[in-house]
Amino acid sequence: MLLLAIQIFGAMLFVWQQLPSFRQIAGNPGEQLPYDAFGDLMTVGILFIMQISFWYRLLYIPIPFRRSNIFLNHVFLFLGRLSFIFGSALFGVAVFRHLPELGRETDILLAVKRGMILVGCLFALFCTSLEVERLGHAFEANRN
């Protein structure tokens, strides 16, 4: 449960940290965000912590709950799907609204670096949503 809590906390921290950037991209498409070395480093750190927690739990620690609980099953499945909404919205705004508006003055290397960070963070959010859904499935009624 600690590793899942780390992943969820990392996802919440990522969303909280990236919300101002999301607002700026949504409101000013094509305007490149200023370089923020600390913010990029913090985002990569969150990404690595989330991924280490996910893969360690997946490879070495089984989910201990095996009792049927239809309410918890639905709550965790709902939270798993809900947890990826920000990532989906961020991807949609960045790729379909922001990128087509970028001009010639865009720093391509910075855009590529941030794009790689974005893809990594979206993958970490996806893994967290899978982990929450796995917990939901652990509470699923046995159907033989």
Task: Describe the structure concisely for a colleague.
With 144 residues, the protein is an all-alpha fold.
Structure description:
The protein is mostly helical and 144 residues long. It has one domain (2-26, 34-138). The protein is built from five helices and no strands. Helix 1 runs parallel beside helix 4 (85-98), helix 1 (2-27) packs across helix 5 and helix 2 (37-60) packs parallel to helix 5 (108-138). The longest helix is centred in the last third of the chain and has 31 residues, at 108-138. The chain is elongated. It starts with a helix and ends in a 6-residue tail after the last helix.
Give the tags.
mainly alpha, single chain, 144 residues, 75% helix, 5 helices
Number of domains: 1
Largest sheet: none
The share of residues in extended strands comes to under 5%
Quick check: average pLDDT? 86
Q: How many separate helices?
A: 5
Question: Got a strand count?
Answer: 0
Helix content: over 70%
Counting helices, strands and paired strands, the structural category is: mainly alpha
General form: elongated
Order of helices and strands: HHHHH
Low-confidence stretches: none
Instruction: State the end-to-end distance.
Output: 28 Å
Gyration radius from CA atoms, angstroms? 18 Å
